[in-house]
Specification:
- Helix content is 45%, strand content 13%.
- It is α+β, with helices and mostly antiparallel strands.
């Protein structure tokens, strides 16, 4: 996997772009522009120059907030004085911090050579092909004006040797000229994902053909192009480690219930279920979950539609109340984790994975006593996060009942063994499990800092960016 995010370099790059922005902004707009990017309030107008005001605003920004500011910068319009190189450099630092699968140079060359036989498919829609390249590589390196035609620029050479005269350049030549062999793993992975996207190839069989060309070489590097979602009926492919769990799309997401639901399979062929009793005490999310995972905005939209609410604020408030009501009343630490997840992330919550409480993993009509040794353990998870690319994270809050006798006076090895066994089974099924001791989360004040650091590290590891 690629290395971690270099915050020192990122701050320097962001500072360079902001310095260029400061030269374009008016003094009385700087506070508004800094706020739009998520920067702290700058010094008052008249106290110092525009560039110094912006530089001091950046200096006051904690490291934890730097990646989000950098994301907003590259997502917007960059100053012409910064050039595309600045955007690409910031992207490379951000992507390096998300743990992209490592793809060695030899594997990249072999992928390029294999792609030569489908280069005509990739370039069939020339405008789409050039749009993909422009989004990831500095192809517009001409020194001439915008309307002038410079055939010595990389764009001009690609149009000449790849689009107008197929066969002049091989796919390996193209990769060489783009700098793809020396690019960061994150950029190269996104390039491959773009080559099999419906934006470039609006034909599903052709998408799959190109993916089949790339995947065998990627597997040599411990990665693969995996179908992780769909967009408009077309598959979305992502470069992921082979070791990442292969999960099917969630079919029945049953959550926010403290009582065992009375479930009946209404269509065994389609695996459709219905809740027969206490349907108001359990939630069942029944919409497709795409490559972005299940975000709060998705959950809120589902809630708004199914409850026939017309107001977004009412949907947000009532959904939060409904989820909170499912938390066990005898576990303040569990409540603190839930509340602080949403309080810590504030305005970026809509784009983050929804923290789902009390999620049913197993369901058996028979009790453990009736089932005996074959009983499934760990029926319900404290919290579940459905992350991008099918990744699933379980959060558990362990009180004394997990390892002590019912009266809490002595150790209970059998209880702990059952917990460890259920943990192993979850992990072997592809879930990432993270446990908190209840004492860690008892005090909301100290728990806030702990959880803020934990979720920042978790999201970096799993490439979650609001």
């Amino acid at each position: 996997m690629s290395g971690g995010m270099d915050l020192v370099v990122l701050r320097e790059l962001v500072g360079g772009v902001l310095n260029d922005f400061a030269g374009l902004w008016r003094h009385h707009d700087i506070g508004l522009e800094c706020g739009r990017l998520g920067l702290p309030e700058p010094p008052p107008e008249g106290e110092c120059s525009k560039r110094v005001r912006v530089a001091r605003s950046l200096a006051a920004l904690p490291d934890a907030g730097l990646p989000a500011v950098a994301e907003r910068i590259v997502a917007g319009t960059m100053p012409l004085s910064s050039g595309p190189a600045a955007r690409f450099a910031i992207e490379d630092v951000l992507w390096a911090g998300r743990g992209a699968p490592e793809i060695p140079k030899r594997v990249r060359r072999e992928i390029a050579r294999d792609l030569d036989r489908v280069l005509d498919v990739l370039t069939r829609k020339a405008d789409r092909f050039m749009a993909l390249l422009e989004g990831l590589w500095d192809v517009n390196d001409s020194q001439l004006g915008f309307f002038a035609r410079d055939l010595t620029s990389l764009r001009g050479q690609i149009e000449q040797h790849v689009l107008r005269n197929p066969g002049d350049w091989t796919a390996e030549d193209l990769f060489e000229q783009l700098g793809a062999f020396d690019a960061g793993d994150g950029r190269f992975g996104r390039f491959l994902e773009g080559l099999v996207s419906a934006d470039l190839i609006p034909d599903e069989p052709a998408q799959q053909d190109v993916a089949d060309v790339i995947s065998p070489r990627l597997r040599e590097a411990g990665a693969e192009l995996r179908e992780t979602g769909s967009d408009g009926g077309y598959p979305i492919f992502s470069v992921v480690p082979v070791s990442a769990a292969r999960h099917r799309q969630p079919k029945n997401l049953v959550f926010a219930s403290q009582v065992k639901p009375d479930i009946r399979i209404s269509d065994a062929i389609s695996n459709d279920i219905e809740i027969l009793q206490n349907a108001d005490k359990v939630l069942v999310y029944d919409r497709p979950i795409g490559s972005d995972g299940l975000r709060w905005r998705d959950l809120q939209e589902w809630w708004k539609d199914t409850r026939q609410l017309s107001d977004d604020e009412e949907a947000k408030r009532s959904l939060y109340q409904r989820l909170t009501s499912a938390l066990p009343g005898n576990s303040p630490p569990q409540r603190n984790l839930f509340d602080l997840y949403y309080k810590v992330h504030g305005t970026v919550v809509p784009d983050l994975p929804a923290l789902l409480p009390e999620v049913w993993l197993h369901w058996d009509p028979k009790t453990v006593h009736e089932r005996g040794a074959a009983a499934l353990l760990g029926h319900r998870m404290d919290f579940l996060l459905l992350l991008p690319h099918g990744q699933r994270v379980v959060l558990e809050v362990d009180g004394s009942h997990h390892y002590a006798s019912p009266d809490g006076t002595r150790p209970a090895p059998a209880r702990y063994a059952a917990l460890a066994r259920a943990d192993r089974e979850l992990k072997l099924s592809g879930y990432e499990v993270f446990r908190f001791g209840a004492t860690e989360l008892k005090d909301p004040g100290s728990a806030r800092g702990l959880l803020q650091a934990f979720f920042a590290d978790l999201f970096r590891r799993f490439s979650v960016t609001p």
